[in-house]
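Hey, can you fold this one?
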Amino acid sequence: MENHYLLAGGPGSGKTSTLVGRIAKAVGESMYGGDILICSLTRTAAHEIAERVKARVPGVEFPHVGTVHALALRALKQDGVNVKLVYEREHVRDFNREYGKHLPESLGNTMYDPEAANADLKTLASVDRRMAAEQPIEEWPHNVASFYTVWSQWKSMRGLMDFTDLIRKAIEVCGQHPADLKYIFVDEAQDLSALEMRLIKQWARSTHKTIVAGDDQQALYEWRGANVAEFIEFAPKENQYILPRSYRMPEAVYAQAKRFGDRIRLKIDKEFSPVGDGGIVQHKLVNYMLDGVLADLKEYESVMLLATCGYMLNPTLKELRSKGVPYHNPYRSRADGKTWNPLRSHYAEAYRCFLMPSEGQHMWTWPQLGRVLRYLKDVPGDLRDLVTENKLSKSTVPGSVVDRHRLDGLLDAARTGDYHAFFDLLDTKYKFGHHGSVSSMGYVKRVLDSHGRASLDEAPGLIVGTVHSVKGGEADSVYVLPMVSPEAHRNMGRNMDSLLRTFYVGVSRAKKKLTLVDCPNERRKMW
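Sure. Predicted structure:
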């Protein structure tokens, strides 16, 4: 393990920046990145590191960048292994049909969702987590072991692999990485599974130096097989470097985060200092939480509202929609690679297209008219057909079409920016939400009412999400809800470290002000 190195630091301590510097140094004057592997928990994070190094060392290229799964897949292909992944829709459909299961066909995008409602998906996720954690099958619950048996047999008969199979096969076949690596750099290594870490260690044997970076107190991914002990024990003490300072948390926030961190039992003992004096830490009753959030949006550039589970945010989201408050989560990626923002939806796009004639564009293009008409009531079938025929056209809609189909009133409203007239013409099913809630179209209208047209294009100041979803993020003011899930509450004694890490991450997002929300009527909570 003499070539194993560990870089650890608290929230906002510059771990990734330090890693970027180490990679740039490894490139040196050779300008060669072909013997360097760069890895992180997500593809985006890994490539961001590579791009930051390339900004420092122009001209260098890194062919080995990605998640452990992606790197394992490439290594297997380089070694001549034919890999067919199980996540194609037709494969999942065949499995469901043959065994009477109900896995979602978009399995690759939902595999690791810790809040999945689908029972079969939860069981498969449990299989994957236990395999990734290298837990002996004899210790598995009977239903999980049974699912694993049929899942494995079915994959084997069809020559298919899932993500865990990729790692296991790479461990079996690729004793050494085919690129003859000199350096391996891994960011967010505290969240790698035991299986992933075993592959990294295997490839590290022949390297000059392997550096893993992370923070054991921010390890959040036990639900996908992560084992923080693998990170803590990766390098001998003499090869461990602790970054000395947080460049995010002021003294008061740092002290609150430390109260959670000090109670974690399995960790690296490390001391680091806050960015400076000051900061605000306060408690606020949940009844007044939203008032505080709205006030902070006027005072600070960014406000973050966090909970341990997504469903805990639903009542607040309902209120935000009712009040027309823009919110998003720039740290949460969707299946299409974009970040989550309700004002980037198809519904908001319909409003944008409707308003185009009021913004210097005299007439809609055909695709814009299609988006406008999509949600309106009583649109003639021949007009919809005409729009469909021209959906790829970039030309504007002829005036004759407006006259023939009596769209002049709609166009006049658009040219004057009267989006209320557009809302009035919507099909009823788009106007109103279920059980008195605000519909998606109604929410966009309320945002326009309260914040104006620019709000559809600007990044909202309010970030809403789970603690897991904003890992790596930060905001001037952060609100943290205290509740834990029923399962977490039942296992609180056994999993206290996991809960403490979750709240440690949540409170340490705050750059200036931290609000701990008090919920006196909740039984399952941390304070």
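The first helix runs from residue 15 to 27. Let me know if you want another pass with a different chain boundary.
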